[in-house]
Amino acid sequence: EQPVLEPVLPAPAEEQNGTDSAKAPKVNCEERNTTGIERFTLQILNVSQDLMEFLNPNSSDCTLVLFYTPWCRFSASLAPHFNSLPRAFPTLRFLALDASQHSSLSTRFGTVAVPNILLFQGAKPMARFNHTDRTLETLKDFIFNQTGIEARSDVAVTEEDWEGPLPSVLTKGIDWLLLFSVLFLASFVMYATVRTDSIRWLIPGQEHEHQE
Q: Which residues form the signal peptide (predicted)?
């Protein structure tokens, strides 16, 4: 399991307000203006696009970012639910990126496993989605608990959400890191074996023991 990022905590004075502080959002998101926007959809970053170019460090708007890989079955099962989120929360932004193509970001934000979902305020990660049950309802609850923004009640996962933009069908791919690790380990074992045999023949008396 991934470590939980500490969300913004209310000020001590607010903690004394009882029920009012319990209802206060942990992240105060600036909701974007949706005037003129007809279609609310997820944006997927390609290999040449940098996530930090899409996050404004000088603003308090919030963005939900998904780190995934196209050959991960958990990412594929999450895809239709994540595709429907922009319609449920039109005032928030939603991005997704292939973690295998953005390895530096995965290291920077500790997303060593996929799928991994981070809530950003500006360019700062504020909270991480840690539930194993990745459905539209659990995602809506997570966003509401963090931001206080309510989801639209008429949004559900549709057939279009299964088609994209985030793919829900696994694609065949090669895990180059795993392949390189296996080749390196095999090469090291072969090298160690050859060196051990060479050293044994150089030790006086070992060649006689071998002949006997």
A: none
